[in-house]
Amino acid sequence: MKITDVRVRKMTKDGKMKAIVSITIDDEFVVHDIKVIDGERGLFIAMPSRKASDGEYKDIAHPINTETRTSIQNLILEAYEKALEEDDEQPIE
C-alpha cells in the first residue's frame, strides 16, 4: 500500500483541530476527514468517525496495525508542516 496523495485543509479558527486531511491510496482509494489534532503530547491524527448510539465515537476507517497507523500519521503530519511553511513563505500584500 502506498499513499499517493495527501491533501491538507487547514482550520482557520483556534482550537485543538488544526486541519482536515484526505489521503489517496495507490491512486485508487480515498479516505476523507482525517483530523490533525493538537493534543497534550503534540500533534496526532484521528481517523474518520461517527457517533454511535451509546454516545461514543467509532472509527469508520482505520489502519489495522500500529505500523501502518504510524506510517500514515507521519506522512500526514509532514504534509501539514509543509502546508504551514508554505503559508509562512507567502508574500504579504
Automatic annotation (TrEMBL):
Top-rank taxon, per record: Bacteria
Keywords, sorted A to Z: Cell cycle, Cell division, Septation
GO biological process: division septum assembly; sporulation resulting in formation of a cellular spore
Keyword flag Transcription: no
NCBIfam families per the UniProt record, alphabetical: PRK13259.1 (NF009749)
Family in the record: Belongs to the SpoVG family.
UniProt function note: Could be involved in septation.
Protein name: Putative septation protein SpoVG
Organism of origin: Eubacterium uniforme
